[in-house]
Amino acid sequence: MWLFLMSLAMLFATSMLAYIVIRIGVFGAETTPPPALGALHLPGALWLSTLIILLASFTIHRAVGAIRLEKQSLLRGYLLATFCLTIAFMLVQAPSLFVVLSNHQQLRSTTGSYLYGMVFFLVLIHALHVVGGLIYLMMVLLKAYAGRYDHERYTGVRHAAMYWHFLDIVWLVMFGTMVVLR
């Protein structure tokens, strides 16, 4: 799991570097709006999705604590809450992606800038990783309902939590960078 997370961290780091290079206008500075307050308009729903992903990280953390204490019903409840929060995250992210894509098409046609395109790419890549995490979380949830985890054997739950915390950190850094350099 650590090797997988490190490889994802490299993808994230290079993507963020590309965003920063585009944002500060290293290449084609004449077509990229300067990093000034209000130059990049992020959908307000992204703030809500940030809250949702933080809550999902909290609930999956609680799921790990529950299984360590052999509290099966709490484990299932927290995993189900994490699953529902993830669905909510995706439902909030989808319209935001369409807004960003629309902004990209508008800015691209008027200035030639790829700024919103890069924002769209970053949010989309993160959302696709959340979908992958959702699939894995569903498998963990099904195993939890089947009673396959206990205080000694809960690797699936632990790996899901590690991945979720990683996605949470990636989102916070990515969204924070976009807010600061908007």
How would you sum up this structure, described in words?
- The protein is mainly alpha-helical and 182 residues long.
- It has a single domain (45-180), classed as Cytochrome c oxidase, subunit III, four-helix bundle (Four Helix Bundle (Hemerythrin (Met), subunit A)), CATH 1.20.120.
- It is 79% helix and 0% strand.
- The chain contains 5 helices and no strands.
- It has helices spanning 2-24, 45-68, 72-111, 115-145, 155-180.
- The longest helix is centred in the middle third of the chain and has 40 residues, at 72-111.
Task: Itemize the secondary structure elements and their pairings.
Layout: H1 2-24, H2 45-68, H3 72-111, H4 115-145, H5 155-180
| Largest sheet composition | none
Number of helices: 5
- Helix content bin: over 70%
CATH class: Mainly Alpha
Number of E strands: 0
Q: How much strand content do the residues show? A: under 5%
Quickly count the domains.
1
Spans where pLDDT lies below 50 across 5 or more residues = none
The topology string of helices and strands comes to: HHHHH
Q: Class by helix and strand content?
A: mainly alpha
CATH topology: Four Helix Bundle (Hemerythrin (Met), subunit A)
CATH superfamily, by name, is Cytochrome c oxidase, subunit III, four-helix bundle
